[in-house]
Amino acid sequence: MYCDFNKEEPIVTKTFWSQIANQAKKEKRPFFSMAPMEAVSNTVFRQVIAHASAPDIFFSEFVYAKGITDPTTKFPVDGRLYIDSREKTYPVVQLWGDVPEDFENGALALKDKGFKAIDINTGCPDKTVIKNHGGTFLIRNPEKIDGIVTAAKNSGLAVSIKTRLGYSKLTEYKEWIPHLLNQHVELLTVHLRTKMEMSKVPAHFEVIDDLIKMRDEISPDTLLQINGDIPDFQAGVDLAKKHPGLDGIMIGRGVFANPFAFEKVPQEHPLNELLNLLRLQLDLFDDFSQHYDVPRFPSLKRFFKIYARPELGATDLRNEMMNAKSTDEVRQILDDFQNK
Questions:
Q1: What is the per-residue DSSP string for 76-142?
Q2: Where is the active site (predicted)?
Q3: Half-sphere exposure of 109 (CA within 13 A, CB side)
Q4: Which terminus of the chain has a lower count of CB atoms within 10 Å, N or C?
C-alpha cells in the first residue's frame, strides 16, 4: 500500500487512507496532513489553513475518548468535535486514553456523527495526559495497545496510530515501532523524537529508512507517515524522494512559521494578505463562539505571531494586538494599521 514515486502500480483496495495516498500518488508525491495540536487544530484554524492552502487531510485536537459518550468526565469534549458547514471534509479525530471500551464507544458515536477515521494518540508528551494514562504513557505500557486497537477497529472506522520513537531513549523505537506495526492499522505516524526530547533536538531523520524497512517486513499494507521539522510542502516532497517507501508527511509547527505551508508552488505573501487571513480567523472565531463558550478570546493570541511577522515590519502591530481584549478591538487595530 505504500507509495513508490518512481513507478506506476495498481490502485490498492480503497480504504479511507489508501484513497488519500493513491490520490497523492497520482501526482507523484506523498500525502500531506496537518498535525493534531491542542487548542490549535480546531474548526476555526482548520478553515484558515484550508483557505490559505489545504493539506490532503486534517487531524483534530486531542479528544478524550471517554468524554465523547460521558460528558461528566474532567476532560469534556466541548467544541472539539464541532464541524463548521464550510469545512469540506471531516478531520481525523485523535483520541487519547487507555480504556478499550472508551475507544470503541467513542468511535461508534463518532461514526454516527459522520466521521470516517480515528487516530490513537500514543505520542503526546503533556504531563496531564500522561498522568491520566494517555499519550506517551502507552509507550511505557505497550501491553495496553492491543486491546485499544482491537476495540477501536470494532467501530468499523479507519484506525491509525500516532506516536514518538520512544519515551526516554532513541533506541526504544527498535521494539516500540514493531509492536505498533503488529497492530496492522491503516496508517502509522511517527514523530521523529522521543518524549523526553520534546522538540528540543532535531528530528531523527536518520531512522526513516529503518522505519520503512520495519514496516515492509511486519505490515506492508500499513502506510507510514512522519512528523517533525518539516516546514512545508516542498521539503516534504524532497524528503519522500530521499526515502522511497515513505507515504505521508505531517506538518505541525510549520504552519506557525508559514500558514501557506501546504502550498504546492511557493509564492510571496505580503503582510496585508497575512493580516486578511487573521481577519478571517477573527470572523470564524466569533461564529464558533456562538455555538460554544470555549475557547475564550485569549486563546487567539497565540496565533497573532503567524500573521504579524517581525520580518515584515509588524512587531509593533503584534505587540498592540496582544493587549487587545476582544476580536472587535483587534479589528480596529488592524483597520488603523492597514489604513495608514
A1: --TTTT---TT-SSPPEEEEE-S-HHHHHHHHHHHHHHT--EEEEEE----HHHHHTT-GGGGGS-T
A2: 124
A3: 18
A4: C
pLDDT at position 282 over 50:
yes
Are 316 and 290 a contacting pair, CB within 8 Å? no
- Going by the annotation, the residues of the binding site are 94, 162, 191, 252-253
The C-alpha cell 474548526 sits at 43
pLDDT tens-digit series, residues 210-234: 999 999 999 999 999 999 999 999 9
| Max CA pair span of the chain | 62
CA distances from 275 to 156, 272, 285 (A): 42, 5, 15
Question: From the candidates 24, 68, 107, 124, which is the catalytic residue?
Answer: 124
Ordered structural domains, the chain, with CATH: 16-257 (3.20.20.70), 271-338 (no CATH)
Is the pLDDT confidence value at 293 over 80?
Answer: no
Nearest alpha carbon to residue 285 among 5, 72, 46: 46
Active-site residue, 124 included = yes
Contacts of 198 (CB under 8 A, 6+ apart): 125
Average pLDDT over residues 245-258: 96
Distance of CA 149 to the CA centre of its chain: 19
DSSP string, 309-323: -GGGT-HHHHHHHHT
Q: How far is CA 46 from the centre of its chain?
A: 10
Using the 8-state DSSP alphabet, how is residue 75 labeled?
S
Binding-site members for FMN are: 94, 162, 191, 252-253
| Global pTM value | 0.93
Residue 135, CA atoms < 13 Å, CB-side half-sphere: 21
* Integer Cα distance of 209 and 15 in angstroms: 25
- pLDDT for 2 beyond 80: no
The answer to which of 109-123, 141-155, 284-298, 305-319 has the lowest mean pLDDT is 284-298
The pLDDT of residue 295 is above 80: no
Q: Does the pLDDT at position 12 exceed 60?
A: no
Measure the CA–CA gap between 325 and 222, rounded to whole angstroms.
47
